């Protein structure tokens, strides 16, 4: 296996640490992902999938264990360091679209590059246009995101996640709020981008038939990895 | 997106535009506050300027005078025993300023001075037939004096020619004595000197007392009639910055040794009135700024709560805490600035309404009030800074939001 793009070693997470209601929700997770892997993360509700995704995405810190991103120990990074690393290496797709309604579809896609660079430029707009084209929304570039359907919004979110060419896209139930047809096409889009661009994906899903079509399926139950299977090639 | 504008500016203005109703309401609130302050400041400035203008259209800001003669108690020569302790003030005969030409030249060299005008004045009587009126005879150098008191502009009959035998008098005196331009007038002074003068002009200073008493003659004429032999009784000085008059007066005294009284000292009451006016205006400004600041802050606090999810997304996409902080600081500043524009327009409107009411019976303005660009610029800067300051706490709250909490919420 090539060098992993990320590695978790005995990662633990407790909420409300140091208080009487302290609860550990992740009990020592060991996990590594290779470049270009297309993984499903499954498990019952409340098992800790979102918590795990937030930790991998550097939105939250583990309370125990180690998280390496490209061999780099993230424990050593301060908030600004985490923010910079997050912007460069990780793309997010959330369940509830999470687009910014004050901006157009195109501007939403540009946003990660804009916050990274500080000032807008033509190159960003071109890249955002190409990405919108890839997700089949070129005609909607100037649309207000509120006027898009749920499936369309999720496509914009995927284009946005890819804006800075991240090593990995983390998607938390990206199809959870979509009808079967829209869910299918959003899933296919991610799969296609993974094949063409080699971007890794880690997708939380409750849809087992979609999970079956991933390279690898990781099952979390009660804060532990219960199974980790690779699909037969 | 304009490439010259940073992410923070783009996000701030978009957020404000998206919450248009909230934004317009708070801009209106800021505007009303700024409008009141701008109107009040303009009114106060205009009022004070018109007071000063009226005051200095008939008097100089600094007057140089010879010292009073001091009355000393009488002492016995042998042992210094006080024989006569209560003394009457000696009768003040006209005293002149020693070497006044030199004093005038020294005064001219001091910075910030516009005009230096010597005067020889004393009491007298104007007689015409049976009628006789007491007057104040003022000998002047027209070229200097008219820069201080615009007699030529106040002439209602004749001209202001002031040759050796000429006199210019006020409308009341002319009426009381029944004289007109080119008539002769006999003037007698306390020293007993008497001369017949030709009335060349009649003025109206807009003040009964002055029109009754003030008469102007050439400096030489007055010197002769008042027995001053080339001396002057006072020197009037006008300065560029009327509020610096007291310091300049002290400089003059230091340079010439002659006592110099500024209007600030002689009108101490008026001056403290201006001071208290300015202070109450400042207090109003502070309270308006405070209420503007609280208004902006409360709107922004709500906006931070409403946008916490978007803040979380921006943070997830790599926006730093500093960037989030600035997005909200800018919103405060922009609201303050736009509010000040609206407020300036509003203040201007209030002023226009005020102008149409505050009039003399004859329709002329009570006094001139102008809205100086400097006042509007200052209002804009102050309102912008107030908005910025008001945004500090909400912006810090926004910047402190943990992305994971913000997104879940
Ligand atoms: N901020 C939090 N504070 C306290 N408990 C939390 C918090 N977030 C999640 N949890 C708890 O942690 C557990 C795992 O939650 P989550 O990671 O959201 O699970 P999943 O995404 O698999 O449904 C749940 O029991 C949930 O109640
Ligand atoms: Mg979840």
Explain what this protein looks like in three dimensions.
The complex is a heterodimer of chains A (233) and B (409). Chain A has a six-stranded mixed β-sheet with strand order 6-7-8-3-9-10. Chain A is globular and about 50 Å long. Chain A is of the alpha/beta class. Chain A has a single domain, classed as P-loop containing nucleotide triphosphate hydrolases (Rossmann fold, 3-Layer(aba) Sandwich). Chain A is 34% helix and 26% strand. The mean pLDDT of chain A is 94. Chain A has helices at residues 49-56, 79-89, 105-117, 122-134, 150-161, 180-197, 208-212; strands spanning 6-15, 23-33, 38-42, 64-69, 72-73, 90-93, 168-172, 200-204, 216-221, 224-230. Chain B is of the alpha+beta class and 409 residues long. Chain B folds into two domains: 2-55 and 271-408, no CATH class; 100-257, no CATH class. Helix content of chain B is 55%, strand content 18%. Chain B is built from 15 helices and twelve strands. Chain B has helices at residues 7-18, 20-56, 100-108, 142-148, 151-154, 171-177, 208-213, 219-225, 245-256, 263-266, 268-306, 308-316, 321-357, 373-400, 403-408, and strands at residues 62-65, 74-75, 82-84, 113-128, 131-140, 155-158, 166-170, 184-189, 194-203, 214-218, 234-239, 259-262. In chain B, strands 4-5-10-7-9-8 form a six-stranded mixed beta barrel, surrounded by four helices. In chain B, strands 2-3 form a two-stranded antiparallel sheet. Chain B is elongated and about 105 Å long. The model of chain B has no long low-confidence stretch (mean pLDDT 89). Classes of the chains: A alpha/beta (233), B alpha+beta (409). Chains A and B meet through helix 2 and helix 3 of A and helix 1, helix 12 and helix 15 of B. Residues 49-50, 172 of chain A line the site of magnesium ion (MG).
């Amino acid at each position: 296996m090539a060098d992993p793009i990320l590695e978790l070693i005995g990662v633990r997470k407790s909420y409300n640490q140091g208080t009487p209601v302290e609860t550990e929700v992740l009990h020592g997770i060991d996990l590594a992902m290779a470049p270009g892997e297309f993984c499903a993360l499954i498990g019952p509700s409340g098992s800790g999938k979102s918590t795990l995704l937030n930790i991998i995405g550097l939105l939250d810190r583990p309370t125990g264990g180690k998280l390496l991103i490209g061999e780099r120990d993230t424990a050593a990074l301060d908030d600004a360091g985490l923010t910079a690393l997050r912007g460069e290496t990780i793309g997010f797709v959330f369940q509830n679209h999470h687009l910014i309604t004050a901006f157009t579809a195109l501007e939403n896609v540009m946003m990660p590059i804009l916050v990274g660079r500080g000032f807008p430029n033509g190159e960003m707009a071109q890249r955002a246009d190409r990405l919108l084209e890839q997700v089949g929304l070129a005609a909607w570039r100037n649309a207000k995101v509120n006027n898009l359907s749920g499936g369309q919004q999720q496509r914009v979110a995927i284009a946005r996640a890819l804006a800075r060419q991240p090593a990995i896209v983390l998607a938390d139930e990206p199809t959870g709020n979509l009808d079967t047809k829209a869910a299918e096409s959003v899933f296919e889009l991610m799969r296609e981008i993974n094949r063409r661009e080699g971007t890794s994906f880690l997708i939380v899903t409750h849809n087992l038939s979609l999970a079956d079509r991933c390279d690898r399926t990781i099952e979390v139950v009660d804060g532990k990895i219960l199974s980790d299977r690779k699909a037969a090639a | 997106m304009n490439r010259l504008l940073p992410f923070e500016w783009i996000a701030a203005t978009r957020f404000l535009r998206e919450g248009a109703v909230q934004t317009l309401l708070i801009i209106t609130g800021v505007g009303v506050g700024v409008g009141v302050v701008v109107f009040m400041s303009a009114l106060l400035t205009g009022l004070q300027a018109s007071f000063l203008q009226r005051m200095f259209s008939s008097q100089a800001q600094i007057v140089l005078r010879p010292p009073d003669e001091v009355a000393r108690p009488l002492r016995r020569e042998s042992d210094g025993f006080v024989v006569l302790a209560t003394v009457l003030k000696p009768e003040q005969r006209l005293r002149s300023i020693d070497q006044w030409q030199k004093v005038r030249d020294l005064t001219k060299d001091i910075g910030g001075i516009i005009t230096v005008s010597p005067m020889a004045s004393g009491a007298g009587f104007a007689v015409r037939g049976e009628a006789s009126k007491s007057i104040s005879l003022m000998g002047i150098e027209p070229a200097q004096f008219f820069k201080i008191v615009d007699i030529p502009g106040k002439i209602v009959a004749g001209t202001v020619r002031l040759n050796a035998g000429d006199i210019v008098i006020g409308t009341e005196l002319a009426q009381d004595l029944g004289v007109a331009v080119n008539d002769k007038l006999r003037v007698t002074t306390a020293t007993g000197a008497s001369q017949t003068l030709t009335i060349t002009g009649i003025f109206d200073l807009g003040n009964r007392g002055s029109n009754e008493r003030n008469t102007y003659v050439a400096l030489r004429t007055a010197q002769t009639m008042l027995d001053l032999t080339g001396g002057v009784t006072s020197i009037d000085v006008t300065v560029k910055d009327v509020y610096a008059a007291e310091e300049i007066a002290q400089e003059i005294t230091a340079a010439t040794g002659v006592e110099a009284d500024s209007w600030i000292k002689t009108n101490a009451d008026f001056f403290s009135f201006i001071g208290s006016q300015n202070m109450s205006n400042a207090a109003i400004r502070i309270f308006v700024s405070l209420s503007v600041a609280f208004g902006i802050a409360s709107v922004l606090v709500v906006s931070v709560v409403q946008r916490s999810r978007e803040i979380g997304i921006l943070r997830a996409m790599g926006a730093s805490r500093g960037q989030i902080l600035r997005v909200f600081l800018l919103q405060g500043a922009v609201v303050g600035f736009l509010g000040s524009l609206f407020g300036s327009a509003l203040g201007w409107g209030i002023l226009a309404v005020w102008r149409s009411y505050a009039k003399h019976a004859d329709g002329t303005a009570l006094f001139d009030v102008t809205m100086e660009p400097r006042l509007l610029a200052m209002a804009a800067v102050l309102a912008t800074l107030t908005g910025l300051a008001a945004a500090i706490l909400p912006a810090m709250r926004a910047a402190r939001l943990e992305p994971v909490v913000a997104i879940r919420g």
